[in-house]
Protein 1
Amino acid sequence: MTATDPAGDRELAQLYADFESYNLSPLWTQRDDLLPFVPSPRAVPFVWRWSELFALAERSGELVPVGRGGERRAIALANPGLPGTPYATPTLWCAIQYLAGHETAPEHRHSPNAFRFVVEGEGVWTVVDGDPVAMRRGDLLLTPGWHFHGHHNDTDQPMAWIDGLDLPFAHYTDVGFFEFGSERVTDEASPSVSRNERLWAYPGLRPLSELDDRASSPLMAYRWEATDAALREQLALEDAGYPATVGQGHAAIRYVNPTTGGDVMPTLRCEFHRFRPGASTRPRHEVGSSVWQVFEGQGTVVLGNEEHRISTGDLFVVPSWVPWSLHADTGFDLFRFDDGPIVERLRFDRTHVPGERRG
Amino acid sequence: MTATDPAGDRELAQLYADFESYNLSPLWTQRDDLLPFVPSPRAVPFVWRWSELFALAERSGELVPVGRGGERRAIALANPGLPGTPYATPTLWCAIQYLAGHETAPEHRHSPNAFRFVVEGEGVWTVVDGDPVAMRRGDLLLTPGWHFHGHHNDTDQPMAWIDGLDLPFAHYTDVGFFEFGSERVTDEASPSVSRNERLWAYPGLRPLSELDDRASSPLMAYRWEATDAALREQLALEDAGYPATVGQGHAAIRYVNPTTGGDVMPTLRCEFHRFRPGASTRPRHEVGSSVWQVFEGQGTVVLGNEEHRISTGDLFVVPSWVPWSLHADTGFDLFRFDDGPIVERLRFDRTHVPGERRG
Amino acid sequence: MTATDPAGDRELAQLYADFESYNLSPLWTQRDDLLPFVPSPRAVPFVWRWSELFALAERSGELVPVGRGGERRAIALANPGLPGTPYATPTLWCAIQYLAGHETAPEHRHSPNAFRFVVEGEGVWTVVDGDPVAMRRGDLLLTPGWHFHGHHNDTDQPMAWIDGLDLPFAHYTDVGFFEFGSERVTDEASPSVSRNERLWAYPGLRPLSELDDRASSPLMAYRWEATDAALREQLALEDAGYPATVGQGHAAIRYVNPTTGGDVMPTLRCEFHRFRPGASTRPRHEVGSSVWQVFEGQGTVVLGNEEHRISTGDLFVVPSWVPWSLHADTGFDLFRFDDGPIVERLRFDRTHVPGERRG
Amino acid sequence: MTATDPAGDRELAQLYADFESYNLSPLWTQRDDLLPFVPSPRAVPFVWRWSELFALAERSGELVPVGRGGERRAIALANPGLPGTPYATPTLWCAIQYLAGHETAPEHRHSPNAFRFVVEGEGVWTVVDGDPVAMRRGDLLLTPGWHFHGHHNDTDQPMAWIDGLDLPFAHYTDVGFFEFGSERVTDEASPSVSRNERLWAYPGLRPLSELDDRASSPLMAYRWEATDAALREQLALEDAGYPATVGQGHAAIRYVNPTTGGDVMPTLRCEFHRFRPGASTRPRHEVGSSVWQVFEGQGTVVLGNEEHRISTGDLFVVPSWVPWSLHADTGFDLFRFDDGPIVERLRFDRTHVPGERRG
């Protein structure tokens, strides 16, 4: 890789120039960037504050209309390590979306997968392929790829929530399609329970008319009452001496597709974690990136070497292989989503918890 | 296949005798029995009356103790076409089990898969691997293969229910193991909700501590309230013009393993069907056999060419390929179990509904 | 389970009589037969001698024509433990089939799965869905369920081979369909390579026109040359110090469906085992039954407690859970088929090798 | 989305500035870039000429040593639409690698998956986890993720081939690990057949010691003789009137993992296509990108609206959704690899052939 004389230097310079003119690029000068010893993400760990996000969303609500073309009043977390992009991580998009009283976000569909998670408020219905789905605090609502969806606020009050998508991934890999739908939502009813829930939201019961497995969950709403109960019971079982939690004082569920028991969508994994006051996790390295939102309570997260105090509504991102750990000061509830299905289906998954035997 | 002269006759007779002495058997004399054009079960369609079953179970309760060795006070449907066996069909075993007040059926485990379905009554807890599971009207309770289980009646009143197993299949194919457990149930508590339900009975929520898929459902109790609601909503959706039912006025669910979305156990399929008054099904031929119990209401079933009036508690069996159809006089609820997983996993499944395009 | 007085005796007798008249059967009197501690097959281990089989097949060739109705001149191994049936085991059928020079066995199809294995001779073509497949020594030829097939002998010499089917299983579970086809084979050509081989018999190469997975292998012929080479190389790798064999001096391959890597047919597993002179296996209990044929060489098999000397062409059956072990006196080649896919897909598989840690 | 007065303009400008200072980014100003109606890749269709590539590789051979650190003398196709990157497409890396006589490329391993395809020459052995694999014209050689591999040239002559990796994908998604191995290859033998082939290269035969499925193919070498024969036979079958090809005069195989029948590696699909003289394909849009190399013959490829004449050794890339079609002037053989497994496992796959019914 070294040339020993001026003539050699010239030839080498000419070689590199020729590479460029022929649209070629040598591996040997960039091997360590292309093939790092461990994942070396450009994305950085970062925390966004809900109070700031919400205030900006409110101002947007006053200044920016919502409608066809822009489609959504959504403000995305833009990772400082990925300047010029609206990406939380290379694979994940996360935004706060804001809809003022009686506003409508028009219907459209796209191949990227999406969900909404509600940290506070209610009053909006998201209409998924014509099925109005109420959005309430603590709910996870899905709009899997290529399902039409629009949102309308049925109240006088604004509502904000977070959107999660695999948009950066879909954009990078050039797999995305998009289509406009109705300007108004196609069904303006505001039922407390959607039709998909009436078909699918029974534990272990599958409609006999729906035996074909689905790439994405046919259940579009995962209600807070069930999530809360599941976590409460895990901790109660732990108290009673039975295995139920993932760690001492750490209950957690994964939202799953009832037709397969697997992730809700082919690219996105959604989970909810609850910690008892005082509980904590060991630092963990994971391949793939995640976004977390505090749903309730206070605690700290250590991202790499930095500790951050976080409380209700705050969001943070964990780039690939950056070690993270959580400590709960109060009872501490967090929603998490990540690109685990991408990583696992393509067999790149690895986890490392220093001090634990590698699994 | 015909011999033309006496010498030939003698030689042929000698050949057949030699076959026998060498433990051999020619195909050509029995091809049509071994390879019928369509399945030709020896088992026959048959109806058992709940009133008769229950009365005999009561008399057994007075005359026959329950305990180690006999293990269960269970009286099996013995298909008249399979004389000398206690089998409902070649693959399925179905019995009424009866437990008097404060009796205990001792714990054991076996590789055959089992469940219980409760058509009336309550007060017994089935203890599955140490986890007491309340049995109440309309509930389906699982004891998958090789799980210890015993039953104890916590009340002064007797209780009866039906047991379903793949015992004839397991016995025929020589795959069964059996082991005695505790003489008493290992946990005599009588909680209204079992621990497995507290972990698993949330729609679309999977404990993060339980990510390995299971051959059998980890959820041991499917409660009537959920089944009833699911069926009621299917009919309500049908009323509102949405696809939800399997046929006009015919709602149905399949009980599934939440870790896979598939059948509750590797050999047994369980379903619940609800018909509006007046609804009926077209005659249907299915490969594989099923057992049905009327849970509530009155109607008729046509099995082959015979029509039977049936009502609450009555049981009937449908051998393979025998056409069956149902007609509801009142609102009509039926529980069904069958060997569908055996037939499908081994790729022998076929269905024929005369007049429908073959699927 | 005991009645204490004459009146009780009478009542109990009446109860049992009533059970019978109502087509019911108590569990408690037959629990130990229905639920044995370990599989207790009625089928017994047994050895059939090729010389005897072949001689009887030849006599059949002289006395019994082959044609429509009887369909095949096949003489089945009739397990002495299953009197009155032509079954090798409860799930497996195995027969010697014999076709004299220029004879034809007419085409038909059935849902039971079938294969042929050739211990000696050649000259017959089996025509599978119109594709003539040469049968030669050491070849495994498939006719999966519902494929039309007939055989014709293109030479002046008779030929014999063994047939294996899941017929007892299909018959017991009532899943079988049957249909007559052409009286003559539909293609009388005698190519050395069949069309399915020309499409599929390349290691790791899949036709782009055939991307849908198949329940059964689309490759109908597994040629001796490949089997022999694969086994020879395993032993050579073992000699060179690399892991390749299943035990010291014991090479083995499983025939698989190239579209899935799994068993060739949904109910039948086929394998070929080769032992160096002097090699042996430890006694092994397996759930499920198997049939073996010595392809070449001499050795002994221990079935349960009995040792049998066996040599080329001899067949033996191993009922479920009966321990078997093999010892090779010479180089020792054996073909084996079993009901492993049934046992495994339904999750009843267990193996026990005394002295080994249970897997 | 428009502000109507100067005060509003100021407020809006302040809002956007605040977004930036808080690391946020509005969706509504960039929706059409992020969510295009159809995939709108930055990568462009492009053709590289083998003669140019090879000449540059030769010059590199003279000027640039190969060794630890740079690791490989590999010169990557750098898509002009992705300036500053050495990427053929956003997911695929493709390079010409060159090894002079008796040179060694040191061993290393990485989680990205890799293969080599040989358009001409021989004499190099790639040593995969200690198993030396000969590289010859027309062969496909795998080094799946996390397998150690090095290459050594056992002759006096240089050899060049192409490498394919999922490196851009792994780099973008931050999933890559890397580790140095031995400076010399760990086994300098030069057998004509590798040990993995001796275990795995038999059609439909699986070693009984290797029953666990593999994420990547355990067969590391797919030899030209088999590929050539498979394609030749497809065309011969087409001539004889049987279905075998993917289009008139267009034979093709996919290289597969024999343990699953699926793609050779979790992220990369490899195929070989053969066209008769005069054959052509219809323009086809596919989600996902591909790289092709002409193995032999001459023809044209239309990429988008541009037609290119191509011949032996030439390479071209097809970005996502850019329509491509091929026309063969002579017999025309092409190797192709693509990111199909990524696209399909994540359920983004779509194909459109104008004039064909959408599948």
Note: Chain D touches chain C at residues 195, 198-209, 211, 213, 217, 219, 222, 226-227, 229-230, 233-234, 236-237, 242-246, 252-261, 264, 271, 273 (CB under 8 Å).
Protein 2
Amino acid sequence: MPKFVYGFTEGNRDLKDLLGGKGANLAEMTNLGLPVPPGFTITTEACRHYLTAGAFPSGLEDEIDQHLRDLEHAMGRSLGQSDDPLLVSVRSGAKFSMPGMMETVLNIGLNDESVQGLAKQAGGNDRFAWDSYRRLIQMFGKTVLGIDGEHFEEALDELKAECGAKGDLDLTAADFRTLVGTFKDIVREQTGQEFPSDPREQMRLAVLAVFHSWNAPRAVLYRRQERIPADLGTAVNIVAMVFGNLGMESGTGVAFTRDPGSGQQGVYGDYLQNAQGEDVVAGIRNTMPLQELERIDKASYDELMQIMEKLENHYRDLCDIEFTIERGKLWMLQTRVGKRTAAAAFRIATQLVDQGLINLDEAVTRVSGDQLAQLMFPRFDKATDATLITKGMNASPGAAVGRAVFSSDRAEELAARGEAVILVRRETNPDDLGGMIAARGVLTSRGGKTSHAAVVARGMGKTCVCGAEELEVSTKERRFTAPGGVVVEEGDVISIDGSSGAVYLGEVPVVPSPVVEYFEGEGDLDDELVRAVHRLMVHADASRRLAVRANADNAEDAARARRFGAEGIGLCRTEHMFLGDRRQLVEDLILATGDEEREAALSKLEPLQRADYAEIFEAMDGLPVTIRLIDPPLHEFLPDLTELSVKVALAGDAATAKDRTLLECVKRLHEQNPMLGLRGVRLGLVVPGLFAMQVRAIAEAARARAEAGGDARAEIMIPLVGAVQELELVREEAEGILAEIGVDALIGTMIEVPRAALTAGQIAEAAQFFSFGTNDLTQMTWGFSRDDVEASFFSQYLDLGIFGVSPFESLDRDGVGRLVRIAVEEGRKTRPDLKLGICGEHGGDPESVHFCHEAGLDYVSCSPFRIPVARLEAGRAALTSDGSDTR
Amino acid sequence: MPKFVYGFTEGNRDLKDLLGGKGANLAEMTNLGLPVPPGFTITTEACRHYLTAGAFPSGLEDEIDQHLRDLEHAMGRSLGQSDDPLLVSVRSGAKFSMPGMMETVLNIGLNDESVQGLAKQAGGNDRFAWDSYRRLIQMFGKTVLGIDGEHFEEALDELKAECGAKGDLDLTAADFRTLVGTFKDIVREQTGQEFPSDPREQMRLAVLAVFHSWNAPRAVLYRRQERIPADLGTAVNIVAMVFGNLGMESGTGVAFTRDPGSGQQGVYGDYLQNAQGEDVVAGIRNTMPLQELERIDKASYDELMQIMEKLENHYRDLCDIEFTIERGKLWMLQTRVGKRTAAAAFRIATQLVDQGLINLDEAVTRVSGDQLAQLMFPRFDKATDATLITKGMNASPGAAVGRAVFSSDRAEELAARGEAVILVRRETNPDDLGGMIAARGVLTSRGGKTSHAAVVARGMGKTCVCGAEELEVSTKERRFTAPGGVVVEEGDVISIDGSSGAVYLGEVPVVPSPVVEYFEGEGDLDDELVRAVHRLMVHADASRRLAVRANADNAEDAARARRFGAEGIGLCRTEHMFLGDRRQLVEDLILATGDEEREAALSKLEPLQRADYAEIFEAMDGLPVTIRLIDPPLHEFLPDLTELSVKVALAGDAATAKDRTLLECVKRLHEQNPMLGLRGVRLGLVVPGLFAMQVRAIAEAARARAEAGGDARAEIMIPLVGAVQELELVREEAEGILAEIGVDALIGTMIEVPRAALTAGQIAEAAQFFSFGTNDLTQMTWGFSRDDVEASFFSQYLDLGIFGVSPFESLDRDGVGRLVRIAVEEGRKTRPDLKLGICGEHGGDPESVHFCHEAGLDYVSCSPFRIPVARLEAGRAALTSDGSDTR
């Protein structure tokens, strides 16, 4: 029979699966000899059993009884003992922290008799005892019996009004005694039953309530969004109560072992005299800095300092703790490895190395790519005197400054004039897409991190603050008002910080990131943060197995990517080279009516392409450059069907012959679903000479570079291949051209159509490398047209918990990832030296980089600015055993 | 060491892999004691070795020598023996017939000496000997030495002109002797080498040429298109020459053991006196019916009759044969199981059962769904006196009558007036799509069965005759001319037969198919064909494991499907019910600006939906009816963006408020790639009440049917699910409604997004059935938008051999099929009683039905007219061991 209950002396921090985070750490502290109130933990296994079978597993009741007896023995008091009662708290504690999701009941053990005993224990403090009792009924009623909390609040408010009391502190013991009666009445009215006076029954019901809370809708939703498995269950901690509200010699506090903002070692925390933990959270009174405890209660303070040092040495990391002092006696109520800012994470990791607590391997795993990315965004100058007018949610990082505008049309209009604008809306919807594209940043007053604005802005990499609820946005009057009567009219300049959620009036100067300056080779190694980043990057680079390349389409991006550490180009998109002043040549190509016209157009494009490639080869000399042949459908280079149709219709007989011809062509090339139409390799096979022109330009540029003493390493990539036959045909033509010009180049393919992954064993026969185009692969595997669905329903999908993160942000392991694994395995089986990389945007996403490491790819490729992130995460992936922990 | 050469006495018909079809059957006949000229076969393995290694495998030359010696011994002559030479033919023979693709060289063994010996053998027939010699040089020069055949043709024509000869028959022995000299000169001029006079060398080079011909471009292309594996190689048959052109006592013929057109037993064939096989093919003289041979050479005729009976009994099927009579001696040159018409296939299969040659199991495997489908198309009345003006290729079956039109616009214009039209084009291109949709049939003068017209017409199920090369089509003058000066102007009525390729002037009456009348329950069982179909269908039904359901959206289709043998509905699309006079209600729903308006629109739709379902449940009483909730994006119910934009722009200030509002809405809902947009389950999750309305209507219709004493078996199908979470949410809502109304229904999902197949193990937790929507699954797995790509590049893809058949016609086993297998396996692992079906159009395609059987599905669902085809193929699949032979 499994063991369902663990005393705190029986567990340890490695048993989080079984005891939850809180229980495991309480046991760890107990075993370290720290002053933890005695108690025990009912396992997650018991919870899972209950949720499946609808009843306690057999033996659980007995185990609880046994541990309760041990607890009573240790405390020298019994649960419900009328003259000297033991009180306990019943607290949930799952493996993963789910703040605010799960239930807690304090003061279990009180009833009409034991309340007297509690008063006696408290030195005759009747008020304290009756206050505790009414708190029990209130919490129990709400949490265990499911009574709407407002009933209790109202009764409390009425009583205060009757007594003329301003706050709880003005109420007397007698008042609370009256309230206990009223609260019991509420329980009877709302449930038809008496409040249970049997402490053992109180405890049993509270345990059940914690079990049930695992499946409360908000918890289910939270888990979906946070991708926490639904079947873990929660543990339940039953702990002897200690009281910080027994007078000025008592109190409660929270603390960090070092500054979670900067990483500085020292004492950081808050303390509140004569209070319980919930009072600190409620913010009823102002806390004092923890340092002041030294003056108030030096013994407890010194003990706390010793404990904190012990914890940090033991956990080898920053810890946060909760403690209570009951009449001069210090009790530890909780500890865990604490959250910290991005800058602190880097500083702390290297400090711990210097202290000899961890080695560099572990230090690299203690920081994350997301943290590094945060450090790379430009920041607002902290020395500014700009007015902070409100804070919203930090939905998409960055710092943006611009004129406030209140409609998408206006945003586009001003942006077209070159103005920087911030689009301000109550909430956005698909109609705002144009405005969001035009704006520097987006600010909304409603919606959370999965709202439309947040999702779309993150997808675009655009700064966004959402859910700034203090703002009153009036689209009609084109203005918003902020607290303190601040009014911002259309055209007024505001600044928004997508990394902190801050909104400022006026223009806040932006300062470049010192970390970016470091990557650019201009960093200040005297700066502690820069030095920490440098040390960890050097070690990550030394540790990683994945190479990191850049997605870059021009020499400038290529050069920056190289400074940022890119080891080549993984994706050079050639179609971007067809825009701008070359659009006319492309139009000529498309409108060509015979071989001669088409060849003439191609022969004009070829020298231009050759020059493009020459520059890129120069910037990436000696490193591989993967060039993707033209991918989009040709109609993307022509005017929009609807706009041109309207133009020609309005012109009537005056429409130009050119426009008419163009319209015919646009109509002919029009596709219902261009993403799944005539593009990529299909175009290469159907338009004679198109791919050949590109291959020739690549080969000639490479040869010219070699003749100039350089080292161009071209890799020619064929997009959208779904069948090996397609690749064979293109490859044959390309090899002929390469041979003719006398240049060597690898020829490979994107794997971006599901069928390519499913038939990778065949395709590898004709491909020297695969590059996973996970953007398109995600689109086709899910059936999502990114342009359409992100704006139209992704925010609702995130809210519904259908996915925890957009599959375009982080690679979907179960679907897309499975295809990647199939292709890797079967491709390598056919061709053991097949080179494997990824060039979708996922190449710069931390979680996805870990996946790529696990899947056995050779490199990831991402945008130049994400290269440091990818380098760091590739190092972390290599250094973590299972490779899956990115947080 | 493997054996590379087999004498005809060593092989048999089961060795087709090794000996090719021709060699295996020659060996089989030899062993049956039939008069086959002696010879031997070089294996496909030798060919494969040669093609890989570039040289004969060691031992092959020795084996050839040994077999040649045996052959010389058997014939009492030696190769190249000057006074009495042995001549041999060298013929290719692959496992699968590749007509016209591979090489043959006759008369090997002739040179300046042995030609004299041949004349002596032929009783002093010098003309025959020299003619044979020049034929050798001509064939050898062209086939083995790669000389352009025109050089020889020109020399022959010049000689005839000099001699004033009208045909070859007017040339004398001396003329041919001159020609031999001229042909040798051509060989010297073109290759710089002498024609090889060593017969052994002639033979060696001819064998090499056959090996090489396996990889000739036309053969490679043919294999790609016919999906014949590229690595099989060809066998080579070396056979002693016999001559049908040694005078009037000699001759050559072809015959069938029964009529391949009707299946009637008897003697069917043609005979040509004093001729070789190639003369019959060339059609130089008219052949005589085989019966006349009885009069000319009764002994040979009687022997042939005995042989034919023996062959049919031995092969237990219709055989076709080639034979030669050399001065009264009958020789069998080839046999194989013969091709036949669809009607003959059914008749022959049942006749062979009646004769006790095969059992019913085998009879079912001898007919195919494609043949059955051919019998179900309406036919032109054979008794018509309509003028056949030409024949093209039978590209897409059916019989179509209409006015000839020469442009897409004109086709659409006349069709809009209710006229039946046939679109006539030289060839079609994507611009003709509208016209092809509007026309009853399509006729082109260029392009083969993979041309644009053929591919698109087959995709539409539209009658098409293509490549009618005798027609001169003038689009400009709007007419075509046919042989014999027939001119068809625009508006003239023509009739085209897509099953035979025939084109008639005027209207040919169409008669219904007796087989369809049978399926409709009105068939004439006295008709032999109908009786044959009936017997085989009954046995197929008794044998199959797959159930067959129908795709039907209304009661009429459901009733027909049931008559045709449907065992339920596998796909009832509800969106078709939203068209017609209900479009306004749907528009109201889409334009609804609040909950109230939306609910009002839904509540108007609900009773209409309920009535739709009630009718279908009645037609399918007692059988399962799978109803798919609404699938397409809402904008499909609104006007087209471009058209409406032009309309509003042209109206200017006079545009109605309604049109303006509508345009706003159309713009808002517009999607770049609607196939991958807001549709299916996504719509159900995002538009409150939409799915609930449909589920309620289904449940209420089912309850009403039960109350009326009927038996409605509803299965609710959720489209476009990609993640189990989507299905869970919809299912929860639907189950609530079903419980409330008190109706039981299965709830399941389409598997049509690749991710659904890849995560089927998870999805099966929430689904009671899967139905593979292989249309969309094919679109997303290949990245093909069917609307776009079939017309724009599929014909080129077929020509390039990228696929042998469109993946929309026949399920792509490697890609889409792999996903289906994954989903079947993992879905059943989660839920062993998971019901599995297919509802894409592949459900009615023979090859795909076999795949579904192999993959272990429970049923296929297809359009009502394809149900008999699916039933037959499901039976065949169950009766063939490997389930993969559909031809």
Note: Chain A touches chain B through 59 residues (CB under 8 Å).
